[in-house]
Design a protein that fits this description.
Number of domains: 1
Distance between the termini: 17 Å
Strand order of the largest sheet: 3-2-1-4-5-6
Strand content: 15-25%
Radius of gyration: 16 Å
Number of helices: 7
CATH superfamily: Isochorismatase-like
Order of helices and strands: EHHEHEHEHEHEH
CATH class: Alpha Beta
Structural class: alpha/beta
Length: about 190
């Protein structure tokens, strides 16, 4: 676990902290939102880019096939771009200077320009968190590991419907690719001189 982060190479990714998604997770609470907001504030204060990853579809869902997991979003009318449900939660809303990346599938990279944004900013270390641990976080870590990014996952800013799945991913699956740090660890590392 790093005690400091190279600010010139680090970016903070907050993924899928959107109203429609958070409504599906009963364990999201004000404490989680507050921790996430504090990590984002620490990154901004350190001059580290904050990158939001959000999922949204066009009206009529032309990107969503008849089969697959996103048919549920289509059938429920959720995550339509421009609606309140697809918006990022107000407690962690983007600030001037932040980047918002739009994706079309589970992983942060699928259907988005995330890799181009990271490349343009010359960022090779990702400090990331999101909803859910077994969804966007897992998919993004696997992709980023294949792309040779260095990573840390902010464990107490990730949530999943199944606490045991969350624990196994954080403690066992991610350990070799994205060692876990807490929000307090991330804040301290971002604030270190």
């Amino acid at each position: 676990m790093p005690t400091t982060l190279d600010r010139a190479r680090t970016a903070v990714l907050i993924m899928d902290y959107q109203n429609d998604i958070l409504l599906r997770f009963t364990q999201i609470d004000d404490e989680t939102l507050t921790r996430a907001a504090r990590v984002l504030d620490a990154a901004r204060a350190a001059g580290v880019p904050v990158i939001y990853v959000r999922i949204a579809f066009r009206a009529g869902y032309p990107e969503v096939p008849e089969q697959g997991m996103f048919a549920m979003a289509r059938d429920s009318g959720r995550l339509v771009d421009g609606t309140e449900g697809a918006d990022i939660h107000a407690a962690v809303a983007p600030q001037p200077g932040d980047t918002v990346v739009l994706k079309k599938r589970v992983g942060a990279q699928t259907g988005s320009d995330l890799q181009q944004v990271l490349s343009a900013k010359r960022r090779t270390h990702l400090v990331l968190f999101g909803v859910s641990t077994s969804g966007v976080v897992l998919s993004t870590i696997r992709w980023a590991a294949d792309q040779d990014y260095t990573m840390n996952v902010v464990s107490d800013c990730c949530i999943d419907r199944d606490p045991e799945v969350h624990r196994v991913l954080i403690d066992k699956v991610f350990a070799g690719m994205a060692p876990a740090i807490t929000a307090a660890d991330a804040i301290a590392a971002l604030g270190a001189a």
